[in-house]
């Protein structure tokens, strides 16, 4: 496991998302003071989740097919998506945001 530096807390305002170029790409969200990281590709289609619509209760809606996902668990909450998104642990240290990734990805 390693920690991938993404940005500072100030660079990602609450209610915003950022695409992190990695293999695979990761979407980082700032919601209500918490940070969440999930795979950036919708499990239903080829859409960038970081371009989705952040909603109440830490959920995101896919910008293409309106599938919704829980940012805490990655669980698909409605059709057309049925498969979850992979989640990644997020660490905030000294005002910097890191995503914990596996070295084997």
TrEMBL record:
One matching Pfam family: Rieske
Gene3D superfamilies linked: Rieske [2Fe-2S] iron-sulphur domain (2.102.10.10)
SUPFAM superfamilies, A to Z: ISP domain
PROSITE patterns in UniProt: RIESKE
Domain Rieske: start-end pairs: 4-99
GO function terms (MF aspect): 2 iron, 2 sulfur cluster binding; dioxygenase activity; metal ion binding
The entry's keywords: 2Fe-2S, Dioxygenase, Iron, Iron-sulfur, Metal-binding, Oxidoreductase
Superkingdom: Bacteria
Descriptive protein name: Phenylpropionate dioxygenase ferredoxin subunit
Organism the protein comes from: Photorhabdus luminescens (Xenorhabdus luminescens)
